[in-house]
Amino acid sequence: MFPALFGNGLHCPYCYRSFRAREIRFRCSGRVGTKKRCETKLDRVLADQMGDHDPQYPVFDGDGRKSTAVHDACYAETHYRVCPRCHSQLPVQFGQIDSKLIALVGAKDSGKTVYMTVLLHELMNDVGARIQASVLGADASTSTRFENVYQRVLYEKHELYSATRTAVAEKGGRRPLVFNLTIRGRNKVRSTLLSFYDTAGEDMNSERSIDQNVRYMTSADGIVLLLDPLQMRGARPHVDADALLPKLVPAEDSPSSVLANIVKQLQGSTGVKAGKRIDKPIAVAFTKMDALQSALPSGSPWHRTPSESAAFNEPDSVEVHRHMQALLHEWAGRNLDETLANSFTRYRLFGLSALGESPRLEGEDTQRVSERGVQPHRVEDPFLWLMSEFGAIRRTTKPAGE
Ligand SMILES: Nc1nc2c(ncn2[C@@H]2O[C@H](COP(=O)(O)OP(=O)(O)OP(=O)(O)O)[C@@H](O)[C@H]2O)c(=O)[nH]1
Ligand SMILES: [Mg+2]
Ligand SMILES: [Zn+2]
Ligand SMILES: [Zn+2]
Fold this sequence. Notes:
Distance between the termini: 33 Å
Bound molecules: guanosine-5'-triphosphate, magnesium ion, zinc ion
InterPro entries: DO-GTPase2, P-loop_NTPase
Largest sheet: 7 strands, mixed
CATH topology of the largest domain: Rossmann fold
Helix content: 25-40%
Pfam family, one: DO-GTPase2
Radius of gyration: 22 Å
Number of strands: 20
Shape: globular
Protein name: Double-GTPase 2 domain-containing protein
Oligomer: single chain
Organism: Lentzea cavernae
CATH class of the largest domain: Alpha Beta
CATH architecture of the largest domain: 3-Layer(aba) Sandwich
Strand order of the largest sheet: 11-12-13-10-14-15-17
């Protein structure tokens, strides 16, 4: 039931390195024990790996399979368990509950940061209510950062983000956002840890990619690859006249080069044999579909609002997949689709709009969300497909549109 406990062991949701349960270490609680109380100081490992320079209580070895340990130096008990590789504090139920790392990747400007924010916001609100799920930050830093940095900019200030800084620019790497998703099933409650790492588009470019980024993709249980249709030559003539049309990016950042890099990195580091495909589900989604929706036929399945059911609607998704496949051939040629089919055992195409409407340009370079606010369409589809691939949510075969 708990795949994260077997095989190669566990994966840290913060640094994505693997280890076994017994290797988990503990951090002193700093409480008063029967000996001299411990003091805080710089944790070199945490500083080097995660860029966190705050003084911390010492890390010590214990039986990592247990939930508590007593620190020999002070005799105080602690329930803070940390990753043996990066010293990040592990979520409370880590190791006991299912843990899924979902890698969100895509070229620069493809819409990753906006998508991640809107998806999580939806999971915390409407979509969460629909699938009877709740989402909570698994650590204090995730909760405050999501609230103050991500959510506030888009939903309160109604502004778009500036480009995400590359992990190289942020010394020591960036901390992923880790959430605990709890789904109420018919007779049991199922928890899944979700880890999202907001990559910068540049990190996808092979020469500049760094360790953490490659680890992030190779240890992921599922991948969401975002493709920007506004970067596809065949789509650009169909873009709404009043939508913001970005400049064409250089060839090395094009959707097909990014996909080629991802395949290369995954094949290189997971040891996939020549001629074999990568056995990780990959959801490939066109973002910014609002800018192209008037070019779609009125009967397009993309326009439909997926049913209110808690389950993942397979027939609806397959119809959208076929439509997106036809669009992909028309907009970017067959090559991308061929690469996906030849490289992955399971892939599915999606179309989504995180904002629902094109942002407006204010002044030289500030972009604002439309006055009507954020109105996402089909942002949950790729996520629900992955969750259904993991067996975490049900799939229904009820005909689409019913
Ligand atoms: N029309 C439309 N534009 C969008 C949507 N989502 C994002 N955009 C546009 O895409 C731009 C980039 O979005 P981001 O989420 O910052 O892209 P990113 O992939 O995180 O970019 P980097 O962090 O630089 O790699 C935004 O400034 C918007 O102009 C959408 O749903 N609809
Ligand atoms: Mg970004
Ligand atoms: Zn770690
Ligand atoms: Zn101590």
